[in-house]
Amino acid sequence: MSGAPRVRSMNVADSEMRPVLGPTGNKASSLSARKPSSKPLRKKDKSPDEFRTPEGKKASQFAAVASSSPQLLPTNGSSVLRRHEQLLHSNSSLNASCSSDASTESFHSRASTGRLIRSSSVGYRRKPVVSKPRSVVSDGSLDSPPPLGPQAKKTCAWVTPNTEPCYAAFHDEEWGVPVHDDRKLFELLVLSGALCELAWPAILSKRHTFREVFADFDPLAVSKMNEKKMGAPGSPASSLLSELKLRAIFENARQITKVIEEFGSFDKYIWSFVNHKPIISKFRYPRQVPVKSPKADVISKDLVRRGFRSVGPSVIYSFMQAAGLTNDHLISCFRFQACISAAEGKEEACATESVRDNKVDDPSERELSAAMDDLDFSEEL
User: Fold this and answer.
1) Is 166 annotated as a binding residue?
2) What is the DSSP letter of 330?
3) 13-49, pLDDT tens digit by residue?
4) What is the dihedral of CA 134, 139, 143, 147, to 10 degrees?
């Protein structure tokens, strides 16, 4: 006999919960393990508290996984693989939610600073924004300097905002304007000769002293002055120039009086070298303005021949610029055209005066005018 028959327990619950071992391993499992859920896990509704902190988010994800997955017993290989797949799915969803939270936090932090820039991916690069210069209004004034108005005058390049006012006024009012007065010409000749020892600003600052010492540049009065007395140490003249230059001024005054006796005026003599018309240079750049010219060399030689002193080509060219014999203003300077207009007006006045002086007193015209006067008088009677 094979033995006593097996008695089957009627306690179904105990049999369902107790695993039955067989030759092939653990094929029996609990009811929850027999019927695994084929539907994917649903994400539970997220509470507002979970969105606020990453720690709360992770805790909620792990709680959802623990509650949704049953207590699996090591039954077989397929169940183990299914459990690993569920864990991987939960980890991927957790990483995605954490990245969304990080992007949300970065969005809120940037929004607080005023820069609303949402980065959708890691490889996104911001395009460089070229900022344009703007004039910002602060305290009722513009930070950027206002543009130059139409009334802004452009001068020669050697006249800058830092130039001394006396020299700027000399440039804007006298330099390049044609001069035809003998006293004024003698003054400019003396000041040009002083450039060997002083600069234009220093000379112009002492201009009133020059006029007091040299009798307002009257050639006849200067020619009669006592050279020894004027050049003595401590005299006003000695504080202006050296003794050599003072002697040259007195000698030039005597020679100018001789020129006036010969030509009638120093003006006619000096302007005859340029045919009584100023030379218009039309320079565009300061480097084009020369120190001397062939015309200045010719005038210098003639003056030396007549007995003038300290009248080299450079001194004479400076004199020509100051007296308006040559217009060396840059063409961009506002004084360029003004000096041309002044020269044209002076030429018209000289032409009218010369026609009036050269008019021939014809006797026939004089008799005709007298006859016309008699005729008018008889008609009135």
Assistant:
1) no
2) B
3) 444 454 444 444 444 444 444 555 555 555 455 554 4
4) 90
